[in-house]
Amino acid sequence: MNRNVRPSHTLAQGTDRGLPQTGKAGRQNRSLAMGRGSSLDRGIEMSTPLSCPKFSRCNAPICPLDEKWAQRSMLGDETVCFYLLEHSKAGARARFHKRGLGEIYEVIGRVLADQSSKWGRIRRSYERAKASGSRLEKRPIWIKGKEYVET
Question: Are residues 61 and 78 in contact, defined by beta-carbon separation less than 8 angstroms?
Answer without folding.
Answer: yes
